[in-house]
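Record 1 of the preview.
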Amino acid sequence: MGKSIFALLATALILTAPETSIRASDSDRLDEILAAQSEQARARYKYRSPRETLEFLGIEPGMTVIESLPGGGWYTRILLPYLGADGHLIGVDYSLDLTSSFEDTTDEEIAEAKAWVETWPAEAESWRTDDSAEVSAYFHGSLPESMHGTADAVLFIRALHGMASSESEGGYMSEALRESFDALKPGGLVGIVQHHARDNMSDDWAQGENGYLKKGYVIDMMKAAGFELVADSDMHANSKDQPATEDFVWRLPPSLNTSEDDPKLRAQMQAIGESNRMTLKFRKP
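->
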């Protein structure tokens, strides 16, 4: 006997389910993890939408995920418990050549950067529980050959502008993207959330030094590295962020670098909120 129309419809719904969906149990787990974050971290949810972001980018428990420039661990503290005991989170910092090239970098900062592959995992260990992902680290430009084809996903969350600003000098962004391609399994994903320069801004202004990049530039660089664009979301778009040519992204929350001594200006920047951002999902064929 053939299938009923209801069974056929159910099958069709399964086959056409969006890639962004995650299992209900994983969704509940993520909600619990997000609710357990600090009050300061939760205050950023309205701008950073971590649940929707991870769902859109296809991040699931048990994955091996590379996180570029994890910084103070805002996403790391969410990813470690979410990936779970079967997962692996790998932090990646700037190459030492790029760090040394930044203007006003001190000898002390260079020494700290050199030790990062030991100090960052040690710090991240304090954020783990027995049910969290294991942690390791390396520098961009030094991907171990043993890691080729082992990762399920790479995340560049507000991480590309520094490399892009020095692309013409050392090819640092190209290197990081090629390296990501090598690290991923076939079908592996790259998630990008990046300060988004609108097309009417000059290319010189939008080369990364001010924090912003143009979407077309990011897509072209990813395609040149061998990736295919899977999806584009405006979940982090912010129409209030309209920078002038003299502005940079760090005038906005959470940095508020230009308004430390100007309460009126600070209120204006807080009213804008965090930056206008592109959110892109790519796949390694």
